[in-house]
Design a protein that fits this description.
Elements (H helix, E strand, L loop, with lengths): L1 H12 L5 H13 L17 E2 L5 E5 L7 H4 L7 H12 L20 E5 L12 H17 L5 E4 L2 H10 L13 E3 L5 E3 L6 H4 L6 H16 L7
Parallel strand pairs: 2-3, 2-4, 4-6
Antiparallel strand pairs: 1-3, 5-6
Helix pairs in contact: 1-5, 4-8
Length: 228
């Protein structure tokens, strides 16, 4: 499985399926943000990363233009990642509470992080066709992470993508803390995205995010009973 995950990562990195996203990610990598003017940007799609034996899968929306699109690792080097990695560290899933670049020693234990869309989109809004082009990558990741028991979509966009792939019917309306028991014993556990829009306004607090990963631990230890 680790070899197949590595093969998938290689395919993700060279993907050029979406002309609008290719143009945007490369433009951002060329023009850069003033604070990072002297640094080389990744400027390519981002593969997932983490523990191949993960019981927890976290799915974000897409890389940030000057976060993952710069560093080469999802959630690394941006404010959303600051919140996420602190919470994962407190929950025992990460060995350090922050991540600034992809070679900073961050290790995840029992968790794997990926995204619904692998390229930074303009205005952080992927188009439906771009979402659909990326979906097969997530389908394959799910197949290559057989120990996953809890799937945490960060935000409504990631929830809709995961719910579509997993064929959730009926599909409850997204809200923070929503739990959807799947027929195979896995659980969808929803969280607000740790974006500044949510954290600055208090819509998402550190206690709320901690609660999600505490609950993930409980669900992984005691999965929902399967349907015959």
């Amino acid at each position: 499985m680790p070899d197949l995950l590595e093969q998938l990562r290689g395919e993700v990195i060279v993907c050029r399926r979406c002309p609008r996203l290719v143009a945007w990610r490369e433009q951002v990598a060329l023009e850069k943000k003033a604070a990072y003017r002297g640094r080389e940007y990744w400027g390519r799609p981002l593969p997932g990363f983490g523990d191949p034996q993960a019981e927890l899968l976290i799915v974000g929306l897409a890389p940030a233009a000057h976060g993952g699109n710069r560093t080469g690792r999802i959630f690394t080097g941006d404010r959303s990642g600051d919140w996420l990695f602190r919470a994962l560290y407190r929950a025992g899933y990460a060995n350090q509470p922050e991540s600034r670049d992809r070679d900073d020693g961050l290790q995840l234990t029992g968790a794997y992080i990926t995204a619904a869309v692998r390229c930074a989109p303009p205005a952080n809004r992927p188009e439906p066709a771009e979402r659909d082009n990326c979906a097969p990558f997530l389908v394959r990741e799910l197949a290559l992470l057989p120990r996953v028991r809890v799937l945490v979509p960060l935000g409504a966009f990631a929830y809709e993508v995961l719910a579509g792939i997993l064929r959730v019917r009926p599909r409850p309306r997204f809200t923070h803390g929503l739990e959807v028991a799947l027929p195979d014993g896995r659980t969808l556990l929803c969280s607000f995205h740790p974006s500044q829009q949510n954290t600055f306004t208090g819509k998402l607090t550190e206690a709320m995010l901690d609660g999600i990963f505490q609950r993930a631990r409980e669900l992984a230890a005691h999965p929902a009973s399967t349907t015959p």
